[in-house]
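Quick one, tokens below:
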């Protein structure tokens, strides 16, 4: 018996040691792959930079050494950092070994402002005199919008170009919550503050429909005007094509109406590119992909002067760990403020907002920077509600015409799950020392006195928000309130209203702030420092394990739990634009 126990114990210890050993080997492999992925690469002579318009564009790329192994065959799950794309296009413009860009069209997912950033970078690339050609069997509307800037747009003879206009869809949960016995108790300021609507109604309010219609038309107008200019087709014709369902017409029809230039198969575009760069038909094309191009050598000269680009993207202090932590953002901004080599700051905001308190903390630090050095804001896809809150102190705000911004309003949302508890047989009991010890409570409805107390708190937060906007934009509080009420505006609309100063992209913001600070030479440094893949992997293990257990236990009911949990996790008052909006 003793020998048996010894064998079992020895086996157990061996398994543990082996697991530890393999774990450290895995960490070593991950470290090696991550290091190799960031090494400077060399571009061969007579090469073409191929930019895949397939997958999803996110604001900033993340370190993932296994990204190439996890992609599907069609690349539809591929994530590309907007920062990497812009950097690669800029390097391709000046790299003498790159003869042109080949846009590989497909199904591209990105918000309108990000699409325009890429399109503008390609327009700038064309100033080098190098070519841009686009080809694909399928163009999503987003990929076609980018590809329309090309010298030539080619389509497979049986291919499709998706050109249909803009549709905005929103999911409403009230019916589901009613069946579950969950009531969402809402206090808010802002007629147009529609982030709460999915939980308290089953359709858009008239005010929300008004604002969504307005910003949808503005977004679509920007797309149509840009494509019309590149393809030399009138905006009226482009709208007519969308109304006629041009997406479902034979490919030859798309040539006739000049949406595309010619029809080719895969081998045809290969031959076309070879001929363009002077290569022989039997030769292989030297195609440089994004990963290689972004790591190519830069011709940027070293300078002691620095312009910091500080990225703030995602929800502020939200339940998503990939969002903006106000505590970490304040630390980052303070570090930038105290660095004397940093002469100016571009605050890149791509956020729908979030915690009002978190927004206030970031707002304060942006103010402190403004007192010491110039700071401009470059707005990405969204800089709304809390995203606008943290932008208003800046010396200048630059947005894309199709950026979604404004949404100056606040709300508080408190679930009452007493109905659900009754259905599943739960009851609650307890004691409290004071009148409001249990406010807010998830197991009972608020009484009128409690609701008035919370409404007063929300009103105070709204007034603070409005006053910050008035000070930052040099307007009166009353003037801000006329365009506030939680209404979402596009950048184009916001400029007319005085909420932003200029229309442009991230590069425009850098150029403008360099001019303001009289910097002829400078280097761009990006903040915050991104966590490595290993750091993210280790920090997410516990959360992912908990999520797996909940999914296994609840099955098809897990999404309902997640929705309730996310709403319950919205701590304090929120300055958040409408969630769950899908722009098609």
């Amino acid at each position: 018996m003793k020998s048996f126990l010894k064998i079992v114990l020895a086996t157990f210890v061996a398994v543990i040691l082996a697991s530890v050993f393999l774990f450290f080997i895995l960490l070593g492999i991950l470290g090696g792959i991550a290091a190799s992925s960031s090494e400077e690469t060399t571009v061969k002579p007579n090469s073409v930079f191929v930019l895949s318009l397939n997958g999803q564009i996110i604001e900033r790329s993340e370190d993932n050494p296994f990204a190439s192994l996890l992609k599907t065959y069609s690349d539809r799950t591929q994530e590309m950092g907007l920062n990497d794309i812009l950097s690669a296009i800029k390097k391709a413009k000046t790299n003498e070994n790159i003869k042109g860009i080949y846009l590989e069209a497909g199904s591209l997912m990105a918000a309108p402002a990000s699409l325009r950033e890429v399109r503008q970078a390609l327009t700038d690339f064309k100033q080098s005199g190098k070519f841009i050609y686009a080809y694909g069997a399928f163009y999503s509307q987003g990929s076609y919008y980018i590809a329309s800037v090309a010298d030539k747009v080619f389509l497979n003879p049986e291919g499709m170009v998706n050109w249909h206009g803009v549709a905005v869809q929103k999911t409403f949960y009230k019916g589901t919550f009613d069946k579950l016995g969950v009531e969402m108790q809402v206090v808010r300021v802002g007629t147009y503050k529609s982030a709460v609507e999915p939980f308290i109604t089953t359709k858009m309010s008239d005010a929300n429909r008004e604002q969504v219609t307005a910003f949808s038309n503005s977004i679509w107008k920007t797309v149509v005007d840009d494509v019309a200019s590149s393809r030399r087709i009138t905006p009226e014709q482009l709208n007519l094509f969308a109304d006629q369902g041009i997406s479902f017409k034979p490919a030859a029809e798309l040539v006739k109406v000049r949406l595309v230039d010619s029809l080719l198969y895969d081998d045809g575009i290969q031959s076309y590119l070879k001929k363009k760069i002077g290569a022989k038909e039997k030769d292989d094309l030297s195609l440089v992909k994004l990963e290689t191009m972004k790591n190519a050598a830069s011709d940027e000269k070293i300078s002691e002067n620095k312009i910091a680009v500080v990225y703030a993207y995602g929800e502020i202090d939200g339940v998503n760990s990939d969002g903006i932590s106000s505590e970490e953002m304040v630390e980052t901004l303070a570090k930038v403020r105290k660095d004397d080599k940093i002469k100016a700051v571009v605050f890149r905001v791509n956020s729908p907002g979030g915690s009002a308190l978190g927004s206030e903390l970031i707002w304060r630090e942006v103010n402190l920077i403004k007192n010491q050095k110039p700071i401009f804001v470059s707005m990405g896809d969204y800089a709304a509600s809390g995203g606008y809150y943290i932008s208003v102190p800046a010396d200048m705000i630059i947005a894309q015409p199709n950026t979604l911004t404004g949404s100056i309003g606040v709300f508080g949302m408190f679930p009452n799950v007493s109905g659900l508890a009754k259905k599943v047989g739960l009851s609650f009991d307890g004691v409290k020392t004071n009148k409001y010890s249990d406010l807010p409570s998830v197991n009972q409805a608020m009484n009128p006195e409690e609701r008035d107390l919370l409404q007063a708190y929300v009103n105070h937060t709204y007034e603070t928000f409005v006053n910050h906007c008035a000070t930052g934009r040099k307007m009166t509080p009353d003037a801000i309130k006329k365009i506030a009420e939680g209404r979402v505006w596009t950048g184009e609309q916001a400029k007319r209203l005085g909420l932003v100063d200029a229309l442009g992209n991230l590069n425009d913001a850098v150029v403008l702030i360099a001019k303001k600070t009289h910097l002829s030479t400078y280097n761009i440094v990006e903040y915050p420092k991104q966590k490595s893949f290993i750091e993210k992997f280790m920090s997410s293990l516990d959360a992912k394990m908990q999520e797996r257990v909940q999914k296994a236990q609840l099955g098809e009911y897990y999404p309902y739990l997640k929705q309730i949990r996310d709403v319950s996790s919205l701590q304090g008052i929120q300055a958040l634009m409408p969630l769950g909006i899908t722009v098609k």
